[in-house]
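User: Is it possible to get a 3D structure for a protein together with its bound compound? The compound here is S-adenosylmethionine. I've pasted both below.
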Amino acid sequence: MIPLSPLYLPVRLPPGMGAAMTDELQTIIDLIRYGASRFNAAGLTFGHSYDNAIDEATQLTLHALHLPHDLGPAYGNARVTLAEKEDVLALFLRRIEERVPAAYLTGEAWFAGLSFKSDPRALVPRSPIAELIEAGFEPWLGGREVRRALDLCTGSGCIALAMAHYNPDWHVDGADLSDDALALADENAQRLLAGNARFVKSDLFSALQGEHYDLIVTNPPYVTDDETDALPREYSHEPELGLRAGYDGLDIVLRILRDAPLHLTEDGLLICEVGEAERALAKLLPELPLIWIEFKVGQMGVFVVERHDLVTHNARITALANAREGIVPTPVSSAGGSLF
Ligand SMILES: C[S@@+](CC[C@H](N)C(=O)[O-])C[C@H]1O[C@@H](n2cnc3c(N)ncnc32)[C@H](O)[C@@H]1O
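Assistant: Yes, that's possible. Here is the predicted structure of the complex:
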């Protein structure tokens, strides 16, 4: 075994990524297989865009080799140079040692069939809502005409921009509280040449007074405090503002349910992702008719609700949401319904 010169391998290799291995790994497929094995052995957490070690190793390998993400299988047996191997292994190393999500290492995430710039200014796009966008939100829209749509808590802008891309006749707004996220969303709008989308800084609906939408879609923060504190290291690279949402994950969702009727058109629709907070929400508001969407892989904690049902139950929702914000009930607000 001839040890490789540090000139060729300047990266510090983790245990098992030794010099002999670099002789044994010769092809693209070798590298992908090797990366996947090391990722599994290191106990990485997946789920930031890809849900398994092979796909992540493929993504990182092709990125480092400057090859398209959909490279044909025929190239799998192509041999790589030592310098290329070094680049691939350096990415594997950061993924393992620093637990950086693969999308942040490559700077790119795919969502609804579109390529987005991805970096720690916003969460890695991964919402199941992509499937609804690609299906034209049917059967949920039921033929309703959409002229204006809102993506509340837009982050990287992925939901807003995918809606704008697939529906060029819609006017789409994306709102977020984070300046960093909005800067990334603007860069993504330029990347996708989305002329029918704009981004607004807003604490939920606060900067959207007087605006009305036929469809509001939102993937807000909904992770409970306890879960946020216990999340795998991968999540620590993402902004906590996009995750943490109170003791039961519903602090933001309740405010959205309370205020959405003021911003929905008469027969408007709200589609909201709450993930694991689904059970807490159903327990808190058992009387609210939420339809839990069935995705190709099953239920994913995303519901649809009609404006008129939010109006009907507004008194109870308002009481719950106001309590989270420390708003003391007044005779008018506790009577409910006065805003509509
Ligand atoms: C779960 S991330 C979703 C991002 C994006 N929609 C996606 O699906 O990848 C939630 C987003 O909500 C934003 N956010 C948190 N609190 C907010 C608030 N009060 N008003 C507006 N946006 C908020 C965060 O900055 C973050 O970008």
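Residues 122-123, 125, 127, 153-156, 158-159, 175-178, 181, 202-204, 219-221, 241-242, 252 surround S-adenosylmethionine (CB under 6 Å). Residues 82-97 form the longest helix (16 residues).
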